[in-house]
Structures are given as structure tokens and as C-alpha cells.
Amino acid sequence: MLKGNAIIGQSGGPTSVINSSLAGVIEAAGKSSFIGEIYGMNYGIEGFMAEKLINLGKQPVSIIKGLRKTPSSTLGSSRHKVTDDDLEIILSVLKKYSIRYFFLIGGNDTMDTINRVENYCRKTGYDLTGVGIPKTVDNDLFGTDHTPGFPSAARSNIINVMQAGVLARDMQKVDKFVVYQTIGRDAGWLAAATALARKREEDAPHLIYTPEFIFDREKFLADAKRCIDKYGWVSVVCGEGLKYRDGTSVSASETKDKFSNVEFGAMGGASVGLNLHGMMYREFNLRGEFQITESLIMSDFVRASKVDLDEAYRCGEEAVKIAEKGESGFMVTIDRLSDDPYTVKYGKALLKDVAVKARPMPAEFFNSEGNNVSPLFIDYMKPLIGDLPVFVELEKIWVKNRD
Fold first, then answer.
1. What confidence category does residue 356 fall into, taking pLDDT thresholds of 50, 70 and 90?
2. Model-level pTM?
3. pLDDT at 342 over 90
4. Which one in 27, 186, 293, 349 has a CA-CA gap of 20 to 30 Å to 33?
């Protein structure tokens, strides 16, 4: 078995539970007989190449425990795409600090980074054990039932849509529609999750549109009109990655990041939600509302899922266990055994099978119209999000007309 120091980094977008995974790695590594010093990358692989390392093994116990209740990426994150020239620099820093254990917490682009670093070290004869800890609110990693960060972001979305739905229902004499846009570039998991806000047919959301389906403007407007006629208003949820049949984005964004992913945020120009809002306004000549939370749901600790926090920590622990067995080139996975009672086990997937790929939602999780979810998806989601708020509505006990 290798003996040496460990480095841990956080990459990509933050989550409410990514620091819980960090705590899991730190505490498990601190008990390892193979790992010496435990370092953290300040601002991901960019900080690592600049030798900006934080001594995690010297942190107070209260800080490490506090990480399990702290959102965002405490080490600082990065979206840097590693180049061939970078690999030589990375190897020199690994050697300089006697690092033999390499852990990164992140999504599919992060898994690609670990895979490339681990392969490069192997080719050059440097012994390095590289293990990935899954993280992404998009829930689009292959090889795992779900990813830490997703349940909490989904829960935040659900509560947002529940509250926005109550507001829109009560304001329907003023605003006839509300559009809620959520992140989700290539997969609709976060948009679809909002279906759990609905307890009755008339509750929000009425329509859900995700990147798994080609967006059809005329069908959308017909769907919306049908709901307005039936309920008096319509709640629409959309994923940011919606595309037309020719592949162009409904957001009209042409801006891309370093990994060639379309940017839907502030740099991305227009947004899907605003464009859907505009379509309904022009078609129906009705007022409506829109809500775009962007990254807020990625760091909403107040609404974090307990299951998510616990599983994120366990994934950190499992990464160290895999590394201690001398197994390199893997990502920790969560494998679901049953929905009720909810039980999982932890496994591993090859990094090369996870890197730079996005897992869409399976077809059986949608209804036949492609504008809402199926009961199977509801069963999948329920164990992940925990109890939701319960709102009441006045009974229509009318005062009798005195005439």
C-alpha cells in the first residue's frame, strides 16, 4: 500500500452538502494508517497548480464538524479545464508535497479531471491513487442512483414552486400564469422534481418542460391555454436547457464555458423562463409572473435534505475506503436497494464511464405528453426530499345572501 499525503479539492458549482462530503474525507483520512498530511486545494485545480494549499489536518474539530452544516464550497471552487501542459505542472506539485492520494468532489467534468491526472501519473510512473466523490445538483452523473446535492436542490425547488403556486392561485384575477425556471443544462431532474409540490390536480405545477424533449412552441401554448381554461391560471416549470427541433436553445444563449457547455446565467443573454413568459403574453394578452432562482437553490442549506447531508458525508468516507484498498480511477456511487423502506449501499464506478457525460432522465419517468412526470418518478423522489410544508386553504363557506 502507498503511504503519502492526501489532497482534496472541490470543483464546479456548489451544493448545500458538498462540505459534508469534504468532512467525510477529512475525518476518514485522519484515521488512515496510509495517509499522512491532509491538504485542501484553494480554488480547485487552479489553486493546486499555484500551490495554494490549506492544511486540513490542522483544522479545529469544531470546524470539521461545522462543515456538515455549512453550504457552498468552503475550499473555493474552479471550472478550469485541465490542458496537457497543466498535467506536467500538476505532477510536479504532487511530487513536491509527497501527495499519493488525490480526491476531487464534483460532477462529470471533475471526474474527467481526476481521470486525466490519474492516467498521466500512471504513464509517467508516479504512483497516485485517484478517487472521485460525486456532486452535482443536476443529478446527471452516470453510475449512481443519484448524486449528493441533488436532493437538497430539488427540495428547495419544490418548496419554491409550492409557495409560488399558492401566490399565483390567489392572484389569478391579476396574473394568469407564472413561469419558474430552474437550472439543468442537459437533464430535467430538477425541473421534474417540482412535481412533488402538487398534492391536488389543480396545484402547481401544471406543466413541466425539460431538456429531454424537443420544445414545441405551439404545443406549449396549447397546453398552457388548456390549463388556464380549466384552473383559471397556469403554473409552468422549465429547465434552462430547453431546445427547439433544430437544436437552438429556447434561451437564445450562445455563450459557452471552458467545457463547451452553454451558459444560461447572467452571461447567457436571454433566458428560457423569460422567453416562455413572452410567448404567453403575446399569444394570450394576459399578465403573468416569472421566477428565476439560478444558483440560489445550489446553496440553500435551510431546506437541505437530511438524507442528502448524511449520504454526502458517507460518500466522503467511502472514497477513503476505496483509496485504502489501493483502488484508483473510481468514483463513489450510491446504489438504491429499495424505495420503501429506503435503503442504499455504496459502490464504485470507473471514472472513464462517468467523465464528460450527462445522464438524462429515463423515458419512464415522464408522462406520455412529455410535459409532466410519471408515478414512477414520484416514487423515486419521495425518499430523497423528506417532509414538505403543509399549506391550508379556506373552505368556501359562503355567507348567505340576505335578500
1. confident
2. 0.93
3. yes
4. 349
